[in-house]
Amino acid sequence: MATKRCPSCGQTYTDDAINFCLNDGELLSYLADDAPETILSKDRPPTMFADDSPPTVLLNKPRVTDQTNWPESEPTAIWQGGQQNFPQQQFGNYPVTVSPNQTLAIVSLCLGLGSMTIGWCCSLGLLLSPAALITGFIALSMIKKDPQANQGRGFAIGGLVAGGLYLALYLLLIVL
Asked: Using an 8 Å Cβ cutoff, are 38 and 53 in contact?
C-alpha cells in the first residue's frame, strides 16, 4: 500500500483510491519510498514533476542592417495627395417618375372583397360593404378631378360592385 501526503497541510493517506486531500482539496503526492513504479520512473530522475520552466533567452544583440551595400536611389518625392484639379460638376435634377395614387381604389376593392368572402360570418359585411362603397365613391371622385395624380378606376368600380352586391344579397336574405 502506497502512502500519499498533502503538500499543503501535511496530512498523510494510505488509501490508494484517494487522490485529493480531504481537508483542503490539494492534489496528493506519493512519498519517495512508496511511489509506484512506472515505465517513465525508471528513466527519469526523482524531480520529474518539479516545475522546470524553460530558460529565458535574452536577445542582447540589436538587429543590424548593412546599409552600405544598398544601391543608390533618388530621394523620395513628397506626396501630393493624388488629386487632380477637375472642375466641379453641378448635378441637375434627375428625372423622377411619380406613380399615380391608387390607395383609396385598392382599399375599396379590398373592403368589397372582404365583405363578400368573410362578411357572411357574424354579419361583418354590414361594416365592410358600406366602407367599400364610401371609399370607392371618394376614389372615383378623386380620379375624375385629377386623372394624372390618381388612378385605379377599375379597382374603385370593383370595390363598389362587391360592396353593393353584398348589401343587395344580404337584404334579399332578410326579406326572404
From this structure: no
